[in-house]
Design goal:
The complex is a heterodimer of chains A (260) and B (288). With 260 residues, chain A is α/β, with parallel strands linked by helices. Chain A has 2 domains: 94 residues, Elongation Factor Tu (Ef-tu), domain 3, CATH 2.40.30; 109 residues, Nucleotide-binding domain of ferredoxin-NADP reductase (FNR) module (Rossmann fold, 3-Layer(aba) Sandwich). In chain A, 17% of the residues lie in helices and 34% in strands. Chain A has 5 helices and 15 strands. Chain A starts with 5 loop residues before the first strand and ends in a 7-residue tail after the last strand. By secondary structure, chain B is an alpha/beta fold. Helices cover 32% and strands 21% of the residues of chain B. In chain B, the strands form 4 sheets. Chain B has an 8-stranded parallel beta barrel with strand order 1-2-5-6-9-10-15-16, surrounded by 5 helices. Chain B has a 4-stranded antiparallel β-sheet with strand order 3-4-14-11, with no helix packed on it. In chain B, helix 2 runs parallel beside helix 3, helix 3 packs parallel to helix 4 and helix 6 packs across helix 8. The chains are: A alpha/beta (260), B alpha/beta (288). The interface between A and B is medium-sized, with 30 and 35 residues.
């Protein structure tokens, strides 16, 4: 279905610093949102950053339809994200949205959401959506580098059961996401997996899902110039040729990708 | 005001953002003889005031274009111009001949920045005789307006311009992207899968302006100028240098509505300078 894309100035309601490397931007839109789906993203225009030429893509982290606000979870990477972290209440941020496809509806209640690092971002919206629209209570496995970076667990817990793992074991289990006991010993209780995070993590999960015949969707993060399908820079290789992460993605069923 | 090939899809993708009727034309994505998958990812690197791309002419080929895409775009309320690309002379001629049969396409833009695979991958547009040959070969089969898009990666752009005019070009469009490279210092690898790629964006505007000016002095045909145009002032600069029309490309990625904003900005400039049309600006650069 085709929702009309908007180029729109939203305004900052809150800028919440979560830890050294992450912050949340809550933005209010001037008119009622079009339909927004989990997995979709925005392209944000960064102003006053001389070395930032292109927009920056961020997945939609959560949506409040009552107040007409949405939240972006942003990881500090370079000059562009640094400038966004300086945005104050009331300042405008121009977005092109909603972009991309979305996670598909699970035909089961046995759902596992897996997020690594800032890959957790779209999963809050997804879990909110599953709970509120489909009365599904998902299990969530969230991986972070260290205790300091573990945030918003209360938010995720509103929509499902949250399990945490950190690289250094300072919170939850220790190791990478795929080292968690849910994956090691308990993967077969799930019939659908949704994952977002660094590509090596997604490939490992795809492999495990393949072995256990569990339907799996991943959200990819390729570098983009336009973000709305015309430049052909963000493509990923699939069984049906090079497809755009910004239009045919960012969500892909792992069976479709050329990963082996 | 038109939009550049490779930055506007086939026009359809921008209907959410602008009314195509406000544009003089849309140069659609390159069409080649056969389906091309394009280059491996990564295909893009952001640079200061610009970006490098090595997309590799990904498209479904001329059959698919004629059968599936043309019916959807032929009735757009603007001129739809097809960018024709190829790896061999024969491929250019084949594609141009097929597009010639499409009634609602008034012109083609011949992309001669492509490597000639029969001559070691040297771009057609870097050697005057090759540029002339491909233009005249296409001229024989293409009966409508033939535009040739020049590569800037040459020593003398005027020489190439003269060669394609001799070959039968009605219009020259310039410039295509500048050859460049990006390196990831931490990984110690090139950023692009193809190592080198094409630079576009504001960074190349000074080169584009210089070349438009040089070509304007060298050949009598109309010129369509492109290269880093982001706003109306940039557009005016190209008219002054000798362009009759302009293309906006990379700017569309940052603001999908930039093309219509530039049209409004040009109109505002004309009012401010008490001019009736852009015609009085073309080549009006004062160098005395």
């Amino acid at each position: 279905m085709d929702v009309r894309k908007l180029v729109q100035d939203l305004h900052v309601v809150k800028n919440i610093r979560l830890n050294d490397r992450h912050f949340l931007l809550e933005l209010v839109a001037p008119e009622t949102f079009p339909m927004l789906l989990p997995g979709q993203f925005v392209q944000a225009l960064v102003k006053d950053s001389p070395s930032t030429f292109l927009r920056r893509p961020f997945s939609i982290h959560s949506v409040d339809y009552v107040n007409n606000t949405l939240r972006l979870l942003i990881q500090l990477k370079g000059a562009g994200t640094h400038h966004l972290s300086l945005l104050r209440e009331g300042e405008p941020l121009n977005l092109i949205y909603p972009l991309g496809n979305s996670f598909s509806f699970p035909q089961t209640n046995d759902v596992l959401l897996i997020g690594g690092g800032c890959g957790v971002a779209p999963l809050l919206f997804l879990s909110q959506f599953l709970r509120q629209q489909h009365q599904i209570h998902p299990t969530m496995l969230l991986g972070f580098k260290t205790k300091e970076e573990v945030t918003e667990i209360e938010e995720y817990s509103r929509f499902g059961n949250v399990h945490v793992i950190t690289d250094d074991g300072t919170e939850g289990e220790k190791g990478l996401v795929v080292d968690h006991s849910l994956i090691r010993d308990g993967i077969n209780q799930f019939k659908k997996i949704y994952a977002c995070g660094p590509e090596p993590m997604l490939r490992a999960i795809a492999k495990i899902a393949g072995i256990h015949h569990i339907d799996c969707e991943v959200s990819l993060e390729n570098t983009m110039a336009c973000g709305f399908g015309v430049c052909l820079c963000c493509v990923t290789a699939t069984q049906t040729g090079n497809e755009r992460v910004c239009v045919e993605g960012p969500v892909f069923n792992t069976r479709k990708l050329k990963w082996n | 005001m038109t939009t550049a090939s490779g930055t506007f899809g086939y026009g359809d993708e921008f209907r959410d953002f602008i009314d195509l009727g406000q544009l003089g034309g849309v140069f659609v994505k390159a069409v080649t003889g056969k389906n091309r998958d394009g280059n491996a990812y990564p295909r893009m690197s952001e640079t200061p005031s610009g970006m490098l791309n090595s997309v590799g002419l990904q498209n479904r080929g001329v059959d698919y274009f004629c059968r599936e895409i043309y019916p959807k775009i032929k009735d757009f309320n603007t001129n739809v111009i097809v960018n024709v690309s190829g790896s061999t002379l024969e491929e250019y001629v084949e594609v141009a001949g097929r597009i010639n049969e499409l009634a609602k396409i008034p012109a083609i833009e011949l992309n001669i920045s492509c490597p000639n695979v029969k001559l070691g991958g040297m771009a057609f547009g870097t050697v005057p005789s090759m540029a002339a040959d491909v233009t005249s070969a296409v001229r024989k089969v293409y009966k409508k307006v033939l535009m040739v898009k020049l590569s800037p990666n040459v020593t003398s752009i005027a020489e190439i311009a003269k060669a394609v005019v001799d070959g039968g070009a009605d219009v020259i469009t310039l410039i295509n992207t500048l050859l460049g490279m990006a390196i990831d210092a931490e990984q110690r690898r090139p950023v692009l899968s193809t190592i080198t790629g094409g630079l576009s964006g504001p960074a190349i505007k000074p080169v584009a302006l210089r070349m438009v000016w040089q070509v304007h002095k060298a050949v009598p045909v109309p010129i369509i100028g492109l290269g880093g145009i982001m706003n109306a002032t940039d557009a005016i600069e190209f008219f002054l240098a000798g362009a009759t029309a302009i293309q906006v490309g990379t700017a569309n990625f940052i603001d999908p509505q930039v093309s219509v904003k530039i049209v409004a900005g040009i109109e505002e400039y004309l009012v401010r300078h008490h001019l009736d049309s852009v015609n009085s600006l073309i080549g009006a650069l004062r160098t005395d």
